[in-house]
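Homework help board

Subject: predicted structure for assignment chain

Our instructor gave us this sequence and asked us to write out the predicted structure in token form, then describe one feature. I got the tokens but I'm not sure how to describe them. Can anyone check?
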Amino acid sequence: MNVQSELHKSSLFQNLGLLANQVVEGFISGIHKSPFHGFSAEFAEHKIYNNGESTKHIDWKLFAKTDKLYTKRYEEETNLRCHMILDNSASMFYPEVKNLGIDHLNKIGFGVLAIAALMAILKKQRDAVGLSVYSDHYEYYASEKGSERHHQMLLAKLNEISASSRLENRTETYTYLHLIAEKMKRRSLIFLFTDMFQTETEDDKLFDALRHLKYNKHEVVLFHVLDAEHEVNFDFDNTPKRFVDVETGEKIDLYADTVKEGYQQRVQNYQEGLKLKCAQYKIKYVSVDVGSDFSKILNTYMTERQKFL
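My token output:
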């Protein structure tokens, strides 16, 4: 799957300018404000004016030439720092999809495309983006930068992940969320893409790792990616089947209907508990069904954020 070409097929990417405005007018615009009020600063560059911002620094001479509103950005003005975190464990490669595309995604495919889309939005504002990828080890880390070269490097990494085959990597979310949180020294916007499946630690410890991400007043958005048909609804025909844990190799033989009701209840309880903890820690929880329309999911998320500004 070529990430950029697939994004161009989506209605999300075609409306990127509108989405950029929605994002910036909300949680990003607040972080953009300079902490150095009252100081004279050296002019650095222009940026697109967003509705709701102060008109104090609009460059009216440039507006007369271009008929577009730009504001002057100064050296002392801080950019948004955004860090993307992607769970690359074996369970994220479910369901098995031979040719990933915008209309045929598994969990890792959704995570890769969503990160690329958010990167494109942030790039329009020249904001700094970093990336962490983990499974049973810390596979990749890139600190937050805003250069074109850095953007292309991250895209290349995302393409590499989408083209890779599933390995038998376990999920050590607890360990690596703590490690990533330690690296986040300055206030940042953090996006986490994971199915939250793990066997190494208890749920309470996993919630502690999520809470650690809130350290230093970071804003955290959890995209909880699942294949709703099978992983939530347990929709399998009632014939004997062998279910294999892709991360541990453990097997169980059963008829789906014999455990379906109990399974659904356990999953529902887990999701409700996760949502409750996210609300408690002020983490934005976004439930994702990878079988749904990719553009609709992200557009809905952006619209919901706009309602609460």
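Reply (TA_rk): Your tokens look well-formed. For the description, you could write something like this. The first helix runs from residue 3 to 8. That's the kind of observation they're looking for.
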